[in-house]
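Worked example 4.2. Below are the chains of a multi-component assembly; read each line carefully before continuing.
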Amino acid sequence: MAESSGTGPSGGAPVLSVARLTKRFGEFTAVNDVSFAMPPGGSLAIVGESGSGKTTIAKMIVGLERPTAGTITACGRDRSTVSRSARERRRRGGEVQIVFQDPYTSLDPRQSAASAIDEVLRLHHGWDGARRAARVSELTSLVGLDERQATALPRALSGGQRQRVAIARALAAEPRVLILDESVAALDVSIQAQVLNLLADIRDETGVSYILISHDLAVVRQLTDQAIVMWRGSVVEEGATASILDDPRHEYTRRLRASVPRPGWKPARSVGVK
Amino acid sequence: MSSPLLEVSGLTVTLPAGTVLRDVSLSLGAGEALGLVGESGSGKSMTVKAISRLLPPKAAATGSIRFDGTEVGALSGPALRAFRSGVAMVFQDPRAHINPVRRIGDFMTEALRAQGVRRGEALARAGALLSEVGIGDAAARLRQFPHELSGGMLQRVMIAAALLTEPRLLLADEPTTALDVTTQAEVMAILDELRRERGMALLFITHDLELAAAICDRTAVMYAGQVVEVRQSDVLHDDPLHPYTAALAAARPDISRTEPRLRAIPGRPLSAFEAPPGGCAFAPRCEFAEEACRTAAIPVTELDGGLTRCVRATALRGQLAVTHG
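Applying the procedure described above to all two chains together yields the following structure tokens:
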């Protein structure tokens, strides 16, 4: 299963692909021989529980961890090895950006949303002040922040508003791929729905691709077309999100599916205890 | 019907920063399970703190909390200790509530030993309960330290420890939120089973309506420091009485279908101290709000066997259910 590539209907060369990706920490294999490819504008979920290796994959893609083996290719260029120069790091940053789970730790407490976005624009685009200011205002309104919120420090913003800032900041680099690492998991249900709608709109408008890392199968269903299911570092099932959730093949996926609370659901003791 | 095991009436709690609970009333019969559902800032955890007498020192509380007919706020000395062994608690993060340098056995038997139970006897009872919560090789587990156990395993230890003194009421504050979903299902099943066997009452706090409905007879929904609806869990999803309950159920994505667009609730949840003094706190986000919702204080209405804090409840009756398509 790890051999497969071409996740989903391919609309041109994949914007991101990983091949036979492996990461070991000492004796422990966190990610074992994982391959997938993402078409431009696609939306792929990496599903799994804690310790399944999904966040380690994200970290390797953005360069926060080095793969033990395997390759990562974004926009046709290899990024499996450490970048040698600031210019190379910037270029990689323009290809793939990430939004983390906790909006309380991912923003600089002394920097307003507008200033955080402006910093990214300055770094990536070499525009003059007026053009940057115009883009800051575009991006903040794209994510639904008003002018007061855009100039406020993070401490004056709610969790949902902070997460919008983190999304706008990631989009400022105009990435082809946005990794959402449990980015809506910490949000209240009513706010989560707003941010999920927003992410769908942004994908329609900009053609950006998403990699959604999530343990929440309902969120996965709502936002992604394709999915891979990970268990203990390996991919156990992959395919169209709808068919994986409607007709799970692997025993682990079935158990995961059956554990999701829904109307009429009753929890059951399973046989094995992890 | 005999008097309830726990009766909270007109509870209002004010912190120096502002009011956090406003006129909260709940009742829980012996052996009954009640879900308490709300988003962040709704006051659900503060309600538990008030019941367990763990409010912050500067909090001012009015209203009444009665456990087994006795006013909880008036307890002291041996009576307070007896109350504490009758009301056990399980929290969201087990690692934050267990001493990391003491063995599981020492932690579990502390309350029993304080009651004068001998060490050997206390350990035997702890071991038996560990088996009941699905932990094998209990004798070895009792000698282990918390860091040697996974989060799901440790939460089972916390549940077993809470049950050791045979409490009549268990307060569980998001006990499965930090766990993986398969582990959550397991822990919920254990909690439900042990509760039924013992005839213990349960107040189950969560942000997840479906999770509460799965093991609770009734569910109370909180918004901005108030209880806005109390309803039989099995009809809550299909026939909610309060627009907020309906909106909360509709906003959640559904695992069995992709919605063209989620029905997000506009705005954000209010804390109690941000809520306007008169009128319904949910009105600014409510699609059914009228002038009357914004001006007068909203009384609790009894309807179809449930309670709702909505002036339009009768008019909206049967029209709030989540429909798709």
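Take a moment to check your reading of the output against the notes. The radius of gyration of chain B is 21 Å. Chain B touches chain A through 49 residues (CB under 8 Å).
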